[in-house]
Amino acid sequence: MIIKHLAAHAKFSPEKMAKTDIALGQTLFAGLNCFEPGQQHAAHSHAGQDKLYVVLEGEAEIQVGGETQLVSTGGGAFAPSGVMHSVRNCGEKRLILLAVLAPPPTRS
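Predicted structure:
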């Protein structure tokens, strides 16, 4: 599968962060996390799962463990398994993140 423009697949919700699946394999998952201004994804962690964020559009305040930084388009953050992390759209425009998880989340 080749996707020429990932951000074109973004979907937004006025109520909360929206998610769009991009790829699901046996050992890796990739999806978009889409935030309107002011929306956030509360602090959480993943046992046995690493997570990589890449900012495709916008500005994010990203927390990983005890570190919080402003991350702009082209930047990213890595949250190893078990480490608390959160994201907040601190900008005035929409925020689109590529979220990559390995191994992929289990779906019921």
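Summary: The longest strand covers residues 50-57.
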